[in-house]
């Protein structure tokens, strides 16, 4: 009874864990005993584990991560500083909205990553080039989500605050900010994904350090276990960041929990 | 005079929107006439008119068509594969709690991480030819489709399912009559995202170790400092993306006739 | 004589994940005659709708069984059809296609389907709206579609789960009158779940008061009003007496549940 009860309560995580362990076991078994193992073409969990240990104990991986993080943070922070006010003004002033909306929509819809070769050409392969790329990809989710958030503020709530004699300041603090914040956080989640794309593309394209470079370099030299470690670490970081933001969304706006698909 | 004012008032949004884009292009065009650019900058600088001229020149030479054909093929096959895989899996995960729980860790992890990180591995597995690009397009496009189909299935009105069940419908009928039609707006929204990701996959995939395709054309041009060729590529991708996005949005707004509620996705 | 529908000692407990089990029905027994119009009234969440879903065959009781015409109910069947409170119309299908749905699943050929659907659309007074979509209809019209769809498979028993609860007061009065006419013409057995004492008294041959959760039949009240019934009848002292009888029986259940404790 007790075991069954626990299983019913935590069915999802238990099944997820079983499935992960199962995959690792089947993978290891198949590659070891069933098919002929070619280390230049494939790898197996035990080799990845060894590589993980080596890389975590060495300092190269940490340096790569630090370098990529710096580029990411610079670009992302700039995107926040530029994107949120820009979106807010677009949402609040109709003329600004009319003027900028088609231009930004065209940019948001197009694969800006296509500019990567040019940006690297202009700003170089170092920190600046990557940060500019991150900014360019991450700024639009902030602009458009802030804009949508401000636009979709319930007119009724605005009228309520005005009817009770609220000043403009009250309007911003008590109505518009709370109803826009969830949109901004959702935008941040999108921006993280796009920002990571920026770093990776920049480092794949031309770099001599950074996690993206490391993955590409391990690939070029056929060190598959190390390459998998890089991919897995990047996945873990991405999952942690997006899940943290999702939790944060639930905390600041539990009533909107159902609104967005993942 | 009032006629002009009224004309402006009625079309203000279009006039301002198009006006800004025109202004942007004009300013860009006349910058080199205004200020003399330093040597280092002028090397990277080009103007809309030069880009247009280059575009025409490359079209006339057939260069663009040649690269475009390769890129389009990668796009079509990759997107086709992702539809063929994403839809059924989305339906299955949406209807089966066990399958959902078993596959959730992979879907979450793969979806959160930019699929581009798999590119080096895909190049090892599929070579630097067309198939590694198709696979990166597939990986990028499959998750928006899968996840949106899943969301559509999960949101299906219980009353409708009970209703068809009350007429003795089996699982297959429930799928066909209720679940699938109900998910269509979600799937179309997913398709819009998937198209964007697929184009991204084509571009980036071709940046690395390819000789054919628009992305390769751009990468090669960039390393030769042919900035106007790079911009021709950017403009083509921009145009294609806009056409796709607007088309799918049009389809989406036609579906709102019976759409149960606003389907919100980015 | 064996009754047409006989529910014996039906028990049903819901066991939702991560929450305490809820006993919805306990020892519910009930007999319904062929062609009878029977209403179930009871406090919110007393299990009336659950019972209807058991009758429909969508839920299986933990204990007890229900026989229909001597046969045990073990799943959905074409001799029963439900009219849902939320209408349950497919939004992407026209009125005609919605009415055809049950027949489609039953495997009725398309031409016969169309003909029969048109007849029923006529019966519920929606002629001219065959090619409209549900979102173009008012609430009352939507429920007419729901009624036509249920009648289309020609069931013996109509199960109606608060069918008029989502309608405004006047539409509701109108729909009640039309339901009575249709019932008179088609001679179906109707089991009708409602919150409204007035509605139950006006429509039914018998009213069953269901206890608050877990639900069981507390009291059977015969409505000895002549038929056909009309709206004026609701203004008579006899009608008020009937309402008072139902109310008195229901009152204790509402109090024991605590009024205001919605669901």
Key terms:
heterotrimer, A: 262 residues, mainly alpha, MetI-like fold, 2 domains, 81% helix, C: 263 residues, alpha/beta, six-stranded mixed beta sheet, four-stranded antiparallel beta sheet, 36% helix, 23% strand, disordered C terminus
Proportion in β-strands of chain B: under 5%
Multimerization state: heterotrimer
Share of helix among residues of chain B?
over 70%
Largest interface: A-B, 63 and 67 residues
State the name of the first-level CATH class of the largest domain in chain A.
Answer: Mainly Alpha
Enumerate the spans of chain A where pLDDT stays under 50 for 5 or more consecutive residues: 257-262
Instruction: Tally the beta strands of chain B.
Output: 0
Protein structure class of chain A: mainly alpha
Mean pLDDT of chain A, as a whole number? Answer: 87
Cα-based radius of gyration of chain B, to the nearest Å: 23 Å
**Major sheet of chain A:** none
Structural class of chain B: mainly alpha
Query: What Rg of chain A do the Cα atoms give?
Result: 23 Å
Order of helix and strand elements from N to C terminus of chain A = HHHHHHHHHHH
- Can you identify the CATH superfamily of the largest domain in chain A? MetI-like
Q: Return residue spans of chain B where pLDDT drops below 50 for at least 5 consecutive residues.
A: 260-266
Structural domains of chain B: how many: 2
Order of helices and strands of chain B: HHHHHHHHHHHH
Q: Given the structure, what is the number of helices of chain B?
A: 12
- The number of helical runs of chain A is 11
Count of strand segments of chain A: 0
Descriptive report:
The complex is a heterotrimer of chains A (262), B (266) and C (263). Chain A has 262 residues and is an all-alpha fold. Chain A folds into two domains: 2-37; 52-256, MetI-like (MetI-like fold, Orthogonal Bundle), CATH 1.10.3720.10. Helix content of chain A is 81%, strand content 0%. Chain A contains eleven helices and no strands. Chain A has helices at 2-9, 11-34, 45-57, 60-92, 94-109, 116-123, 127-151, 155-163, 168-205, 211-220, 224-252. Chain A is flat. In chain B, helix 5 (63-95) packs antiparallel against helix 6 (97-112) and helix 10 (171-207) runs antiparallel to helix 12 (227-255). Chain B has two domains: 1-45, no CATH class; 46-255, MetI-like fold (Orthogonal Bundle). In chain B, 82% of the residues lie in helices and 0% in strands. Chain B is mainly alpha-helical and 266 residues long. Mean pLDDT of chain B is 88; it is low at 260-266. Chain B is built from twelve helices and no strands. Chain C has 263 residues and is of the alpha/beta class. Chain C has a domain at 88-154. Chain C contains seven helices and ten strands. Chain C has a six-stranded mixed sheet with strand order 6-7-8-3-9-10, sandwiched between helices. The longest helix of chain C is centred in the last third of the chain and has 21 residues, at 237-257. The N and C termini of chain C lie far apart (39 Å). At the A-B interface, helix 2, helix 5, helix 6, helix 9 and helix 10 of A face helix 2, helix 6, helix 7, helix 8 and helix 10 of B.
């Amino acid at each position: 009874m007790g075991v069954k009860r626990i299983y019913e309560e935590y069915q999802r995580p238990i099944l997820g864990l079983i499935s992960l362990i199962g995959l690792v076991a089947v993978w290891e078994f198949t590659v070891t005993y069933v098919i002929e193992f070619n280390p230049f073409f494939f790898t197996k969990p035990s080799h990845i584990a060894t590589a993980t240990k080596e890389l975590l104990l060495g300092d190269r991986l940490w340096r790569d991560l630090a370098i990529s993080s710096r580029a990411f943070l610079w670009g992302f922070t700039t995107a926040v500083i530029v994107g949120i006010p820009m979106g807010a003004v677009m949402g609040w002033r109709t003329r600004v909205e009319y003027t900028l909306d088609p231009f930004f929509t065209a940019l948001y819809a197009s694969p800006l990553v296509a500019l990567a070769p040019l940006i690297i050409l202009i700003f170089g392969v170092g920190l600046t080039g990557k940060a500019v790329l991150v900014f360019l990809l991450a700024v639009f989710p902030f602009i458009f989500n802030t804009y949508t958030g401000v636009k979709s503020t319930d007119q009724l709530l605005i009228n309520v605050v005005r009817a009770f004699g609220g000043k403009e300041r009250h309007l911003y603090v008590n109505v518009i900010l709370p109803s826009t914040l969830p949109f901004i956080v959702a935008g941040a989640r999108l921006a993280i994904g796009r920002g990571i794309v920026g770093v990776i593309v920049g480092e794949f394209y031309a770099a001599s350090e950074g996690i993206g470079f490391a993955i590409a370099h391990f690939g070029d030299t056929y060190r598959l276990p190390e390459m998998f470690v890089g991919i897995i670490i990047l996945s873990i970081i991405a999952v942690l960041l997006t899940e943290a933001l999702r939790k944060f969304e639930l905390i600041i706006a539990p009533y909107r929990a159902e609104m967005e698909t993942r | 005079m009032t006629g002009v004012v009224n004309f402006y008032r009625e079309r203000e949004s279009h006039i301002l929107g198009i006006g800004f884009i025109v202004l942007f292009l004009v300013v860009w065009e006349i910058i080199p006439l205004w200020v003399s650019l330093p040597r280092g900058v002028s090397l990277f600088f080009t103007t809309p008119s030069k880009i247009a001229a280059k575009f025409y020149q490359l079209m006339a030479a057939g260069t663009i068509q040649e690269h475009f054909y390769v890129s389009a093929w990668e796009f079509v096959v990759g997107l086709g594969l992702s539809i063929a895989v994403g839809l059924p899996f989305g339906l299955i995960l949406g209807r089966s709690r066990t399958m959902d729980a078993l596959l959730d860790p992979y879907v979450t992890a793969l979806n959160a991480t930019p699929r581009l990180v798999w590119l080096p591995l895909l190049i090892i597995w599929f070579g630097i030819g067309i198939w590694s690009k198709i696979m990166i397009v597939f990986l990028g496009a499959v998750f928006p489709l899968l996840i949106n189909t899943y969301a559509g299935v999960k949101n299906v009105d219980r009353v409708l399912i009970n209703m068809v069940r009350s007429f003795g419908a089996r699982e297959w009928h429930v799928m066909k009559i209720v679940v699938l039609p109900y998910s269509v707006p979600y799937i179309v929204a997913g398709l819009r995202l998937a198209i964007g990701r697929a184009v991204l996959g084509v571009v980036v995939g071709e940046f690395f170790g390819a000789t054919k395709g628009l992305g390769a054309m751009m990468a090669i041009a960039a390393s030769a400092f042919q900035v106007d060729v790079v911009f021709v590529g950017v403009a083509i991708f921009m145009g294609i993306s806009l056409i796709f996005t607007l088309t799918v949005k049009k389809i989406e707004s036609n579906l709102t006739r019976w759409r149960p509620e606003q389907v919100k996705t980015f | 004589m064996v009754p047409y529908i006989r529910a014996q000692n039906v028990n049903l407990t819901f066991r939702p994940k991560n929450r305490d089990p809820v006993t919805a029905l306990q020892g519910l027994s009930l007999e319904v005659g062929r062609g009878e119009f029977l209403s179930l009234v009871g406090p919110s969440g007393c299990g009336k709708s659950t019972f209807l879903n058991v009758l429909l065959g969508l839920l299986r009781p933990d204990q007890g069984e229900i026989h229909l015409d001597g046969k045990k109910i073990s799943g959905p069947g074409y001799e029963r059809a439900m009219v849902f409170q939320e209408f349950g119309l497919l939004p992407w299908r026209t009125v005609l296609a919605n009415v055809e749905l049950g027949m489609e699943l039953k495997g009725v050929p398309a031409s016969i389907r169309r003909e029969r659907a048109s007849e029923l659309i006529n019966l519920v007074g929606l002629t001219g709206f065959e090619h409209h979509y549900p979102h173009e209809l008012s609430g009352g019209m939507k429920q007419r579609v729901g009624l036509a769809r249920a009648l289309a498979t020609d069931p013996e028993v109509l199960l109606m789960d608060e069918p008029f609860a989502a309608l405004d007061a006047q539409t509701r009065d109108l729909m009640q009158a039309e339901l009575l006419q249709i019932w008179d013409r088609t001679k179906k057995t109707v089991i009708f779940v409602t919150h409204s004492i007035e509605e139950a008294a006006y429509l039914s041959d018998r009213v069953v008061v269901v206890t608050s959760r877990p639900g069981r039949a507390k009291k059977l009240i015969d409505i000895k009003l002549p038929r056909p019934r009309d709206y004026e009848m609701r203004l008579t002292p006899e009608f008020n007496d009937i309402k008072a009888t139902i109310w008195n029986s229901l009152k204790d259940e509402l109090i024991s549940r605590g009024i205001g404790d919605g669901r």
